[in-house]
Every structure is written in C-alpha cells, then in structure tokens.
Amino acid sequence: MITNKYNYEIIQNIIEFYKLQPGVKNNHLDKLEEYLVVLSSFISDAFNDLNEIRNSEVIDNYEDIIDVLNSYINSVSEEIKKIFLDDSISITPLLYDDQFNLNEIQIIEYYKKINNGDQNEMNLSEYINSLENSLYDKAFGEILCDLTLSTIKEINSDLIIRVEDLM
Asked: In the predicted model, is pLDDT for residue 148 greater than 80?
C-alpha cells in the first residue's frame, strides 16, 4: 500500500533533484511541487477507496471499483487541463448509465482499451489476462481491484514523468 508519507518522500526526492539542476527557478519548483502534491492526493484517495472495497466481505459490485477509477480519472483530467494546455494527454473514464449494470466482458474490454489493446501500453496485460481467466469466478472482484490499482499507478507514473518533463 502506498501511504501519504511514501508519496511525500517521493515528491521531496524529485524536488531535491531539481534543486540541484542548474537553471531551475524557485517558482518552477514551487509549481512542480504543487502539481505533484495534487496528483499524490488523487492517488491516495483512490487507494483508500479501493482498500475499503477490498476489505468488504464479498466484492461483487464492480461498478464501485469502476467508480473509483472514474473518479480518479476525472480528478486527474481536470488538473491535466491546467498543466498541459495543448490537450496532449487524454484519459477517458468508462461512461455508463447508473441503470445499466456493467458486466465482466464490458469491464475487460474497457481495460483493454486503456491498455491500448495488444500494445500493452500501460503494462496491464498480465492483470487483464488474469481477469479474463477468472471470468464469472469469485476472484474476479479481487483481480479487478488489483487491475484498477495498477491502472491508477500507471496513469500516475506517466503524469509525474510528463510534469517533470515540463521542467
């Protein structure tokens, strides 16, 4: 589990690295730290929500897991618009009607789309394969939590790198 202390240490290490770089101004460092703290708060909230779901007796409401991912993506998307003015990054949440129950196949297809199919862009293929192999099994919910956690980590890592690239 990733804690706030762990996230804070990572952010501080990144900031310390850039303090040593020639030509980096304090206002750039302040902005970088601000963005990293915001991104860190989003991932912490998502992890806490997933842990609550995981700690329930039975994980059978897959919409709750997808809602965690959607909430994270929506929060991150708002920040991305502020950071990257050119719309170079686009993450699409899974849109579904509350009256429409998601089934396992739709969820798998959504994660395949996020992973960019066979290109394994987000390194999620192993989790997706496990999810496919546990279709209609009790383990599906647990694996879906793991997949969602990995997806959020991958999105977060990509965003941190892109924010750092702005320096």
From this structure: yes
Please tell me which residue, 66 or 82, carries the higher pLDDT value. Answer: 66
10-15 long-range CB contacts below 8 Å, 24 or more apart?
A: 10/40, 11/36, 11/37, 11/40, 14/160, 14/164
Contacts of 127 (CB under 8 A, 6+ apart): 111, 143, 146, 147, 150
Region for residue 23 given its phi and psi (left: phi exceeds 0; alpha: psi -120 to 50; beta: otherwise):
left
Structure tokens at 53: 């779901």
CB 145 within 8 A of CB 49: no
117, exposed or middle or buried, with CB in 10 Å at 0-12, 13-18, 19+? exposed
Write out pLDDT tens, residues 28-52. Answer: 777 777 888 888 888 889 999 999 9
Most confident of 4-13, 19-28, 59-68: 59-68
Cβ–Cβ < 8 Å for 134, 118: no
* Contacts made by residues 100-109, CB under 8 angstroms, sequence distance 24+: 101/63, 102/62, 102/63, 102/66, 104/62, 104/131, 104/135, 104/136, 104/140, 105/135, 107/62, 107/66, 107/131, 107/144, 108/132, 108/135
The pLDDT of residue 142: 92
